[in-house]
Amino acid sequence: MGADFQGWVAANQARFEEVLRGLLPKADIAPQRLHEAMRYAVLDGGKRVRPLLAFAAGELAGAEQARVDVAAAAVELIHAYSLVHDDMPCMDDDVLRRGKPTCHVQYDEATALLVGDALQTLAFQLLAEHRLNGHARFPHTRDTLLAKPADCGSGCEAAIPAPDAPQRRVMASHPNPLPQAGEGENESLREFLANDDAARQLEMVRLLALASGSRGMAGGQAIDLASVGKALTLPELEFMHIHKTGALIRAAILLGAHCGSASAEQLDRLDRFGKLIGLAFQVVDDVLDCEADTATLGKTAGKDADNDKPTYVSLLGIQGARDMAQRLHREALETLAGFGMAAQRLRELADFIVLRKF
Question: Which residues of 206-230 are buried (b: 16+ CB within 10 A; e: fewer)?
């Protein structure tokens, strides 16, 4: 992982933080405590691996950055909600997340529960109220096009507004909502809408719903809770983590690709890559839970062992788990062979996921 990749990661993480600040409800909007807690749970922390994977897949598919930003935010909000709920006393009962007190500790359990609910629904609101797929020559969101003056020229930006940008409607505690009926449309807007693919955007909503629900992340969490104190076989452990961790990672990659132009065959290969690297991510997590300290991880180290949870380390040992991560890494890279340099960022992210220390 060279300096170029590290610079790409740092730039995207910094920019995406501002995207999230703009998309989340402001803390001074009622109900203030809930909105403040939502921002606390999402902002200023995390590796942003899922958004980075979405950005890399979007680059591969030639997607407009502003579109991928929204899709990546939807995935990250689902991930953040899952962490808030996972840390609660009825689940893993943890007090530290991303180096700071967990949401229910900083606020209270009822607020944390509502934070998770609100972040989940906000994710789907974002997918519904933004134009996420279309021809690259019309890269702007509908609201941005309507707002541009006729003589704007090439200097206008289609990016997410700064977090202090004024809101246009009650619905718009987030930027770029669809305009109400009766608002004017110029010729560029009509052509833009004609080239947008509503069916593919609906598929994106379906993808995230499946990845988040009982057949995805929530189902994996249920299996995880039911497995405490039990010895699972390797296929059973893989089944659990394909859902609990892998489903959202796969969705992030596919959503990023759906924002651009990717064929069905390419999407299948990207999905295979996501499945493999999602499993590798969890294997490495299990190793780090045993080897890294709490300060490095930003969460309580050794929690799985203390709770008698089945992990890849408890099943295979430290070296066996490392070997499995390396095998999954190799297989994941093989799925990208036909993409050439367009998949370079995905390859580098695969390297980071397997070689990371936190």
Answer: ebbbebbeeebbbbbbebbeebeee
- Residue 238 inside a domain? The answer is yes
Where do the H-state alpha helices sit in 163-263?
187-195, 198-212, 217-226, 234-241, 247-258
Q: CA 176, CA 275: separation in Å to the nearest integer?
A: 32
Q: Tell me: the pLDDT tens digits for 11-31?
A: 999 999 999 999 999 999 999
Number of domains in the chain: 1
Kindly report the pTM of this predicted structure: 0.82
The amino acid occupying position 136 is A
- Between CA 179 and CA 125 the distance in angstroms is 14
**Are 285 and 353 a contacting pair, CB within 8 Å?**
no
Nearest C-alpha neighbor of 133 from the set 74, 191, 68 = 68
| Residue 250: CATH number of its domain | 1.10.600.10
d(CA 356, CA 343): 20
Cα(105)–Cα(96) distance, integer angstroms? 9
With a CB cutoff of 8 Å and minimum separation 6, the contacts of 244 are 217, 219, 220, 221, 223, 224, 282
Worst-scoring range by mean pLDDT, 122-136, 142-156, 220-234? 142-156
* Listed residue (115, 118, 98) closest to 107, CA to CA: 115
Q: Identify each DSSP E strand in 55-162 by its residue range.
A: 96-97, 100-101
Half-sphere exposure of 309 (CA within 13 A, CB side): 22
Q: Nearest CA to 204 among 118, 119, 131?
A: 131
Looking at residue 178, the DSSP 8-state letter turns out to be P
Q: How far apart are CA 299 and CA 70, in angstroms?
A: 27
Q: Is residue 154 pLDDT above 60, yes or no?
A: no
User: What is the distance of C-alpha 115 from the center of its chain?
Assistant: 17
The answer to whether the beta carbons of residues 89 and 104 sit under 8 Å apart is: yes
- Residue 163 falls inside a structural domain: no
CA 176, 190, 205, 86: dihedral to nearest 10 degrees? -10
Containing structural domain, residue 48? 3-138+189-355
